[in-house]
Write a structure and sequence with these properties.
- The chain has 14 helices and nine strands.
Length: 496
């Protein structure tokens, strides 16, 4: 037991020692710093942006700055150029330690545990020397105007020396270039004067070109205006001449037309006068024929109207009979429906809604059936009455038509004479007053033709009917009214 405790105690001590070593030797390098651990191996360990453990006593920890550094490589004295002009150059170079293994080893030998300022100070002399060498190979104008090429040459020259130190040149910018005698300022003034001169010459040439172009444009515009006005004047002159010629031709044509119109007008007046007489005669003939046709049409309309009234009366009676029948049926159905409703009311409440719906449908159907039957009965009755009325009209059709035609005779005479009232003026060649009386004498002739036509249509002598109202007819009773059974009694009554 004692041995176990002793062994356990040793293990605890060892564990505590390991933990202490780890805690005291734990290191963590930032990304811009390289931690170099040396002592155990020939090649030291390098930690960049990661953690590690340094063994106490056995290993050594050194630091190397890896960030970007600015090195001022200003020349303190004037340096002669290739064209023997002394200048001072102020430049800034951006450098950093190379990140590859070889660069780190070289930089560790030269800049270990140094700050960025110290490293930049160590590099300044080397970079200034390289820049002096490049200045000696260039002229003042190249240094001042082509600074990018100058900085590139400085970087290329210095890179060989910087690689030996493990340094990488990122960029080199020329800040300022000055000369000992102010030649750069003079060159600027010379360039300024030259630029001003070129600008003045260019402006003068531009003004000259503008003046020439303006004069040429004015000349062309004036020539175009003169040409345009000349063409306009020529066109206007030609237009005036053409108008005069056209006016002369128009006057000649107008005179010829006026003479021809006068001759033609006289001929037309003669033709119109003859045509007017013929037209008036033809018009009277046409109106006479038209009146005859109107009488025939009126007769046909009267016959059709009588027949139509008989059919309408028949249809009305039939509809009334059918309506009465439908009404009686509807009342009977209503009474029946009332009795059935009272009997069905005693049924169970569950059947009430269905029963009401069925009875309502039956009532509607019975109602429409009864109405339809009444309408049909009424229509039959009216049709029967119309048939009887039509038979009665047929028995007295001749007499009725004669009576109607007799009533419209005054209107017929007025219509026959109406065309004469529309005649404003009549030119009659030959005949004297007898010619005018011939036109007014057409009215009795036309009336007689109408009477003859009515007699032919009805089969009744209309002349005898007209004479029945005269005094001679009432005294002598010499009237033939065959076909009119009511005419003879009327004449006897007048005699009495």
């Amino acid at each position: 037991m004692a041995e176990f405790l002793q062994s356990y105690g040793i293990l605890v001590v060892v564990a505590v020692l390991l933990i202490a070593i780890i805690l005291t030797g734990y290191v963590k390098a930032p990304p811009n710093m390289a931690y170099i651990l040396s002592g155990l191996k020939k090649t030291p360990r390098v930690l960049i942006g990661r953690a590690g453990v340094k063994l106490p006593i056995l290993e050594r920890l050194d630091k190397l700055y890896l960030g970007q550094m600015s090195v001022d490589i200003k020349t303190d004295t004037f340096i002669p150029t290739n064209d023997f002009i002394n200048v001072k150059v102020d430049a800034v170079a951006k450098v950093r330690i190379r990140s590859d293994q070889e660069g780190l080893q070289l930089a560790a030998k030269n800049f270990l545990n140094k700050s960025s300022e110290e490293i930049a100070s160590d590099l300044m002399d080397s970079l200034q020397g390289n820049m002096r060498e490049i200045i000696g190979t260039l002229d003042l104008k190249s240094i001042n105007t082509d600074r990018d090429s100058f900085s590139d040459q400085v970087m290329e020259k210095a890179s060989r020396d910087m690689d030996k130190l493990g340094i990488e040149i990122i960029s080199c910018n020329i800040q300022n270039v000055t000369d000992e005698n102010g030649l750069i300022t003079d060159m600027g003034m010379d360039n300024t004067a030259k630029i001003k001169k070129d600008a003045a010459i260019a402006k003068t040439q531009a003004d000259r070109d503008v003046a020439i172009a303006k004069a040429q444009a004015d000349k062309e515009a004036n020539e175009a205006r003169v040409k345009s006005e000349t063409e306009i004047a020529e066109k206007n002159n030609a237009l005036d001449i053409k108008k005069s010629e056209l006016q002369i031709q128009a006057d000649i044509k107008r005179a010829e037309a006026d003479a021809a119109y006068e001759i033609q007008n006289q001929e037309q007046q003669k033709t119109v006068q003859a045509a007017t007489v013929n037209a008036q005669i033809a018009k009277a003939e046409r109106e006479r024929e038209l009146k005859s046709q109107e009488v025939q049409v009126r007769q046909q309309e009267l016959a059709a109207e009588i027949e139509k009234k008989a059919d309408a009366e028949k249809y009305r009676r039939q509809q009334e009979a059918e309506a009465q029948l439908i009404e009686r049926q509807r009342q009977a159905e209503a009474e029946k429906f009332e009795q059935e409703r009272k009997a069905e009311a005693r049924k169970a409440l569950a059947e009430a809604e269905r029963y009401a719906a069925e009875q309502e449908a039956a009532g509607i159907a019975a109602k429409y059936n009864a109405e339809a039957e009444g309408i049909r009965a009424k229509g039959l009755a009216e049709a029967e009455a119309m048939e009887r009325k039509a038979e009665a009209y047929k028995k007295y059709n001749g007499a009725a038509i004669v009576e109607m035609l007799t009533k419209i005779m005054p209107e017929m005479a007025s219509e026959i004479a109406k065309p004469l009232s529309s005649i404003d003026k009549i030119n009659i060649y030959g005949g004297g007053e007898a010619g005018a009386s011939q036109i007014s004498g057409n009215i009795p002739v036309v009336m007689k033709q109408v009477m003859d036509t009515m007699s032919e249509v009805t089969g009744v002598d209309m002349t005898e009917i007209v004479k029945a109202s005269t005094y001679d007819a009432k005294v002598t009773k010499n009237i033939n009214v065959d076909g009119l059974p009511e005419a003879a009694p009327q004449a006897e009554t007048v005699e009495e």
